[in-house]
Protein: ABC-2 type transport system ATP-binding protein
Organism: Blastococcus aurantiacus
Amino acid sequence: MRPRSGARRALAVLLPLVAAAVLAGAGPAAAADGVRTEDARVPSGSGADAVELDTTLYLPAEDELPAPAVVMAHGFGGSKQSVADDARAMVGRGYVVLTFSARGFGDSTGQIGLDDPDREVADLSTLVDVLAERDDVVQDGDGDPRVGVGGASYGGALALLGAAYDQRIDAIAPQITWNSLTSALFPSQSGAVPGGTPAATPQGGAGVHKRLWSGIFFGLGAAPSGDLLDVLGGSGPQDGGPVPSDVDVDDVTQALTCGRFSPEVCAAYQSAASTGTLTPEAAEVLDRGSPAGVLDRISAPTLLVQGTQDSLFGLGQADANARGIAANGTPVQVLWYAGGHDAPASDGVTDELRDAVADWFDVHLRDADVERPAFEFPAPTGLGTAGTVGRVQGGTRTVTAGSYPGLDGEEPVRRTDVELTGSLQPVVNPAGGTPAALTTVPGLGALTAALGGSTLEIPGQSASFESAPLDSAVEVVGAPTVALDVSSASGSATLFAKLYDVAPGGGTVLPAGLVAPLQLTGLSADPAQPTTVEVTLPAIVHRFEAGHTMRVVVSSTDQAFALPAEPAVYSVALADAGAGVSVPQVAGTTEAAGGSARWWLLLGGLVLLGLLGWAAARLLGRRRDRLVSAVEPDGEDVPLRFEGVTKAYKDGFVAVRDLSFEVRRGQVLGLLGPNGAGKTTSLRMLMGLIQPTEGRISVFGHAARPGAPVLSRLGSFVEGTGLLPHLSGRQNLRLYWAATGRPAEDAHMEEAIEVAGLGAALDRPVRRYSQGMRQRVAIAQAMLGLPDLLVLDEPTNGLDPPQIHAMREVLRSYAATGRTVIVSSHLLSEIEQTCSHVVVMAKGQKIAQGTVEEIVGAGGAVLVGVAEADTDRAIAVLTELPGVSAGRTDDGLVAELGGVPRDVALRALVEAGIAVDQFTPRRRLEDAFLALVGQS
């Protein structure tokens, strides 16, 4: 009956890892000046339920008192120390803050009752009584302090329940908590749900036991107390020795098995863990600590904060709380963030959450005029969100909306249907439920990340339904739904539905590692007449990129849940041919994360210091080139202009000398020249990477100098790809765009990916790419944001002929939209077929400029295409013209026109009644180039 030492060691390793998520621990915060603390032990309850609560009161400076109060409740397995940083941050905003260890935790006495209204909730009311007796707390009436309650997970549920049972609580801010503890630990996401809100999820109980999470949850409270270990002595059973003779063995066994849990909570867990089912007794315990049944009592304005990385309490739990509280006419706002029980938020996101909670209390405890969005969520992304140490790296961008769709009379959430295909498929449940599919490791973001976010589906144990590749990106914000036809010989089935993101190369991502358990009963036994089941998939925030597919997988096993031991075979199909998955989408404004005001002040100070230093340097006589700021009036029509540009180096070498030319809108300009001609140096000056010694370069009428804002209209690929080899092509593109700081929707990522044309290779590491593949990704990178001026240096290096042809078409089409393209290349035949205009350079100087036709046509020879029967007559007509000679060659009929204009020669042929199929300059660009360079 006693745990083995090895198991205890494993538990000792597991619990600290999980605690970071369960406690929603915050990052370090600076202590506020003048903060004083008072420790006290507060008696609460009576009779067998009497306890002493270990408390700490944080007080701001004397000149800020009296002040409203905030009670900070901790997460499961924590104590008052877990929220000390949150308390100091809140007292820095001028609040009196009371922290405490809940009964059964920390140095408080008593047993854990899972937020029992008669125990933990009553304890919260006792703490409100304490605040009601203090002169340094603002009082709204006799025995009624002005007080808000905040907390995460276990503490978040306490805030909700406290507001329902104690009307003195004026505002609450619960985080990553539950609506129904029954549905959270025994979920089944089948059946109808209230429509309209983004993450509405079935909240019925008697579903599939969330076995691993329940074990972690129970383990945090089942560790033996220090008092018990003292009684057992140093050679007691924790060390493998005998139990002292004066200790009752049954009492020791009970204490070691249940730890600090109350007997009814312990019995409920042991029953669920042993049988995998929800007994009425266990349901009564869980329902008693669930806000679901008392939401109609909450009148305190509520800020609901929920994490997108949470397989314990998903977004659907907050959605249910929002609907229930708003139905009572109570103000509700909803905030989703990148983090949760599976992966703690980044320090930056944690600071933002603290500010959001403090702002909420400012509005409702101080009547402050603070504008906060009714709904905000992290910007959807197709990239992975867990970092290598299990900490969520997202949250740098936030989407805000004017309302939480479907709440309190608001417009319902907009949904998009994505068609799926797939036939009727058998799904096998193995004996004992082993082996089981692997999706995520509950609570251990670090381990999940170490596995690369990989999932494992067991062959034969799942059915799969897939969409066609998406024509455009789809941003899912909330819980998708799908209708399935299911049959089972036994009339029941345990299944797990999930929505995968499948890249063109076959790589799969399960957003946030979330699955939807389904406990189905009353099913048809006949696959020909199945039962239709409405399934709500996990609520997620995820962007499915263009070209990706959505894959709905329904499996019979998942290692995180209790599974049927008996083998079975189910049949699963889409409810209707051509049916699909309905995904919710929420429109909003994407914003960069604001951070705290102190960081903006610091940034402003650094900028000011920089400006002062710059000004001082100028006053002290630092020589600087005169910057011409005038904007040329024809700048929009002339995207690029070189005027007398020279680049000389200190050793006397002149790379570019007196270079002048201009490029007009819609042109594709080829920059030609042998090695050392100065082409790359010219492009580097254009991009602001180096500065000319003399002259001026203007882009859209603005001087092109390092850091010039106008350069944001330029996309370039010069001197190597610069791709990170350990990342995939797709990740390189996203990382590059993120570094620009511009909104993700401005990237036009789909168009750029289409240019790359790498297919499945786009999701492979760049280190495995050929030179041509790297080249194509780099060109796509240059085209991100669809720049008005595109500059490419040797873009076709490493490309095969079909790819070169495709690139030619892309560049022509790009310029046809009114944009401008500059191409530097040695492949003269491609320049001839791609470019409309050419600048030829040699030894740093321009030696020719004009249209391709003007450069090529300077030799006066044309190739004439006529029918064989008309060849002799055509020669006769042409040679009658003064100075013209003509004759047959291997290429066909060639005429040397001398000084006769081409249109005159062509008119003579047409007037003679000769049908002309071709009349083009015979000399190629290469010929003209070699002649020009040789002359130079």
Remarks:
- The chain has a mean pLDDT of 81.
